[in-house]
Design goal:
five-stranded antiparallel β-sheet; 20% strand; five-stranded mixed β-sheet; 50% helix; single chain; 12 strands; alpha+beta; 423 residues; 11 helices
């Protein structure tokens, strides 16, 4: 038999071409992977270089913990990198801010739209509170979502803002004080102008009325003596004399309001002067059912002042206190002599002074009393203010919260008084 050789041929060119293409693609993919890896390594190097040099804190948060922190973050928080990597980052915030910040962080990590820039406070390792300007952005880290955060320490700016706010408030307060002072000076100027007008009017009244008034007063006394007590019009005699005396008193008050006081100072004890004034006003107190009390233990030292002026001031103020007090109440007077001033306090149990009239109580002819009851013309306190201004003294009213009003009088002592014998 003859041998037969069977040759089978198969065209594998496509396979070879495919294998060659696969090798080429693998090599190209490998080169791309290498290039991408190098690029990533270069990007990470650049990121770390920039982050390490940054003055703002930079960190990466993922899966509930910090994955990276730069040196500035460590400096701001006071914690080391190892400590930050194992602690809850939300624990750096005050307790009241932790829930809100945690909720925002987790929502941002899920890709939800939440605020990514705001200011907050954090607590350092040593317990100090620092203000942080915080910014967060969603990134991909090691193939999964993460948060890239920046923290800029703005504590110094916040402190400056607080100081600026305080300076602004202080300035506004100073402006308000200066404005109030200007208004008070304007009020005093208007009051002085009114006093000047009153003075000129008082001078004319004194010139035109005093002499005729004296004649009328004397004539009324003569006529009154000629009217028998059993006459049916005898009651008018006393009424005429009383009204003439009232007119004379008003004229005298108007003169006192304007007339310069030139009385010479003298050595005396304020305790005795005050006691004399209160003794004189005892019947007035009984008329209004007001009890008069005093505490003068600290007013026995001698002073060198115009005693008559002090007497007139005390008389007007105490009368005002008696008439302002409710029936059955009391008026208490205390005084003290200090090295530089005499201080007198007159306390009444009236209704106090309403806020809307506090600035008017020293105006001439201003009164809230019934003129039919007290006969007042609103000149008493104006006279006191005028007399105290002449002595460089002060007078003021305030409530002590117990339905009592305290009138405080302070008169400076130009020369400390000695204890020489009274003249």
């Amino acid at each position: 038999s003859a041998w037969v050789v069977l040759i089978v041929c198969e065209d594998i060119t496509p396979r070879k071409q495919a294998e060659h293409e696969i090798r080429r693609l693998n090599e190209e993919l490998e080169q791309r992977v290498i290039a991408r890896t190098l690029a990533l390594q270069e990007s990470e190097t650049k990121f770390r270089t920039l982050a390490e040099m940054a003055t703002a804190g930079i960190f990466i948060y993922q899966d509930g913990r910090l994955r990276y922190v730069n040196p500035a973050t460590q400096q701001i928080t006071g914690y080391t990198q190892a400590e930050l990597m194992v602690r809850d980052p939300w624990g750096l915030l005050p307790p009241e801010r932790q829930p809100e910040a945690r909720t925002r962080g987790l929502a941002l990590e899920r890709g939800e739209a939440v605020p990514t820039h705001y200011e907050l406070q954090m607590i350092t390792k040593h317990g100090a509170k620092r203000w942080i300007d915080f910014t967060a952005r969603l990134i991909e880290f090691e193939g999964r979502p993460a948060i890239l955060g920046t923290a800029l320490d703005i504590t110094a700016r916040k402190n400056l803002d607080a100081q600026l706010q305080k300076y602004t408030e202080d300035l506004e307060g100073l402006i308000a004080q200066r404005t109030a002072r200007i208004q008070e000076l304007e009020r005093q100027r208007a009051e002085q102008e009114k006093l000047a007008v009153s003075g000129r009017m008082a001078a004319r009244i004194a010139h035109e009325i005093n002499n005729p008034l004296g004649i009328i007063q004397n004539a009324a006394k003569l006529v009154g003596r000629a009217v028998p007590q059993d006459h049916r019009h005898f009651a008018y005699v006393g009424l005429i004399e009383k009204e003439i005396a009232r007119i004379a008193r008003i004229v005298r008050q108007m003169l006192d309001l304007h007339r310069p006081q030139r009385q010479s100072p003298k050595i005396f004890r304020p305790s005795q002067t005050i006691a004399d004034v209160m003794a004189l006003l005892q019947p007035r107190g009984e008329e209004f059912n007001i009890r008069l009390e005093h505490d003068l233990q600290r007013a026995h030292a001698t002073v060198n002042l115009p005693e008559d002026i002090l007497w007139q001031i005390l008389y007007n103020v105490i009368v005002n206190a008696i008439e302002a007090s409710a029936a059955g109440g009391r008026v208490h007077v205390s005084a003290a002599v200090a090295p530089e001033h005499l201080r007198v306090e007159v306390t009444d149990q009236g209704q106090g002074i309403p806020e809307d009239i506090k600035t008017r109580i020293f105006e001439p002819f201003f009164t809230t009393k019934s003129t039919s009851t007290t006969g007042g013309m609103g000149l008493g306190l104006a006279i006191c203010k005028s007399l105290l201004d002449a002595l460089n003294g002060e007078i003021g009213f305030q409530s002590n919260g117990n339905n009592e009003t305290i009138c405080t009088i302070v008169i400076p002592l130009a020369q400390p008084p000695d204890n020489e014998s009274l003249r």
